[in-house]
Amino acid sequence: MTSLASADKSKPYLPLAGLASDGWSKEGSATATCFCGAVQLSFATEAPGLVDVFICHCTDDHKIHAAMFATNFVVADTHLVHIRGRENLTQFSQSRTIASGNTMTNNFCRTCGSLMYRVSSGFPGMSILRVGTVDDFNLMETKLKPRFEQCVKDRVDWLDGAKGVEQAQGHILADRGK
Questions:
Q1: Rounded to two decimals, what is the model's pTM?
Q2: The sheet that has 29-33: what strands, in order across it?
Q3: Residues in the chain with pLDDT < 70?
Q4: 77: Cα within 13 Å, side-chain hemisphere
């Protein structure tokens, strides 16, 4: 049985993960799909459309993901396509828990609740997608491997940092002005 560890990294690995079975990955782009399959996006897997990939331990990500951290990637909106389900997205915006004070708009699938992406008022023209929504699992080991880990001051003690990536106490993206 194929697994992420044993999958051939030179070609897409699209295991059954959620109800949709039409995800794809090709040179330069791939899909991200919500759990029920109602929402599907196409995004760039290379620069200039793919801006950055990172792990975040901020307290906001803890809560919005119901997990101890989030693995995110930033895509220029010019390289993000709503293949289906844009009308099925529901939005929730707030700034109270965002360290920068920027307004963060969360875009969820109305049917299954999957968080598809976030948009920060501090980074116009960019969307922050979740690596967990990507259909080709091999991209997690290749083009969507994180470059840095931020907000490690809020990382739980029982979790070590990611191997081979820069570690930062605060928000690297905000500090770099991306």
A1: 0.87
A2: 25-26, 29-33, 40-44, 80-84
A3: 1, 62, 97-99, 151, 170, 173-178
A4: 9
